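Each record in this resource describes a single protein on a pair of labelled lines. With that in mind, the following record should read easily:

===
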Amino acid sequence: MRFELSVKPLVKGGTVRITDTQIAISNATEVVLLLSATTSFNGFDRCPYSQGRTSTRPTSNTWPKLRGRPTRNCSRRTLADFHRYFDRVSLSLNPAEQDKSRLATDERLDAYGHGAADSSLEALYFQYGRYLLISSSRTPGAHPQSAGHLEQGLRAPWSSNYTNQHQTWK
């Protein structure tokens, strides 16, 4: 799969120096990094390399569309879109149990690994899974998967392809 990621810094005050290998920002009072990413994914039934979309043009076309848009409005729209799905579900397990949410997560995980009860940590993991699924499934026709994240190299032996078939029942 071909891919491209572009970063555009929006800086208040200070200076920006961009080279081929880094973005150096000095003495800024505010920095917002806009990210735009594209891949050559062109459907589950097409090879992303030989039948894929051009992965560079959509990214380079993003910046003119964002020119003049306040970043606060982008954040608000993104959060509203996300919460439209996320706020549909809440989960409370064993509400009589002492709430440990004020403890640091690493401490909670350590205690849980040693047998301590922490139902709110289990609920947190449930919500984290929902967060990942919602965030990774916003592109129509592109299904989320994690298999490629487990691969050590850039290309998995199975190309991180989808290997299941879906059936539409009538």
User: Anything to note?
Assistant: The helical segments are 57-60, 62-66, 71-86, 105-113, 119-136, 147-150.
